[in-house]
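This section describes the prediction task in plain terms. A model, or a person checking by hand, is given the sequence of a single protein chain and must write out its three-dimensional structure as a string of tokens. No templates, partner chains or ligands are provided. The sample shown here is typical of the held-out split.
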Amino acid sequence: MLNKPKPQPTFAVIEAVAVIVGIVVGVGIFKTPTLVAANVSGGISFLLIWLLGGLISLLGALCYGELATSYPHPGGEYHYLTRSFGKEMALLFAWARLSVMQTGSIALLAFVFGDYVVQLVPLGDRAAAIYAALAVIVLTGINALGIQLSKWLQNWLTAAKLLGLLFIFWTGLVLTSSSTPAVSTTPNSEGSYGSALIFVLLTYGGWSEAAYLSAEIQDVKQNMVRVLVGSIGAIALVFLLVNFAYLKGLGLSAIANSQAVAADLMRQALGEAGVQFISLLVAVSALGAMQGTIFTGGRTNYALGQDWKLFSWLGRWDERTQTPLNALLIQGTITLALIWLGTLTRSGFATMVEYTAPVFWFFLLLTTLSLFVLRTVEPEVSRSFRVPLYPLTPLLFCATCVYMLQASLTYTGIGALVGVGVLLTGVPLLLLVRH
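The expected answer:
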């Protein structure tokens, strides 16, 4: 009997880091600093809370490092949940990725891409949605054509956005002289720092996608932790440098009152040419994040098809292109449907953030808890990397996930309820496949 085609370890460490940095350093760094600045009391605390976000993300990355090196699998979190909580819970997670988390994340990035390309090439009232849909179609097609092409595109998009962000850092340090000194703003309440942390961790979100590369990273037991820690370190450094540039170039009060903080900084330094540069950079950043998210999302759908007969058509791996072709196509189709739904609301981006956040934090919590379960029920498994300071490290990260889950349900609107509702439609699906 011939062996079925399956993923091969083709990713070097730097290529895997490029995927994760490309996903995380997306559009948040151009939007959330204003919200963070409005909830802190001074420039030092503004920078420290970005550093804290990096440290919290590192706690999670260390937990995922043990899971990914002990259980390398293209299904990532789906595989860990299968082993720890059973196939039914893993199916619910895969449904959430397919219908809410991954497709919703791609859609919100597509909306940002469309909004900024319209600034460069306006084509009418519906142009932003058209650009968003075209980006999904083109990037899904590139991923379907083959892994080498998608890796090449990811590397170049990530390099372009990092160079652009370094230019913003240089601009803030050298070309601007802040007309508004970095004075403090008074927090609204004791909970303001908690609100700031919500936006910071939202901006850091996406590093967990490294789990889906575990079957395709060369020498995964040695390199997985390097990928995770290296990615978080690079991301935190970029975020700190860019926010320091915002702070020096504009001042905290101006950041807090800005509608487009990066555009304001570049306008002060370079005039309208700077604003055009920012529009292009945000569009490139959104494309880079979309490319990585499309790539990893297809891997969960592939794992779902491997385990459930009803979804077996998703579990076909194309040996020629080294891609889960059917899994990518269904993901792209659902994303296009979400983009269409997003056009019916006032802000497609905000709606998709609300739609995805509670479900994302719930399953991030559950995946971290699986570390405790698997240490207990599978003690014989070889663990080349163990979480430092266990069980304190995963407990601290679990506490963060609980807080973020509560906050995402409390501070978001109807989109959060819709996302949870779509997740619950997976329950009858579960009953269907069981019988």
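For orientation: The first helix runs from residue 13 to 24.
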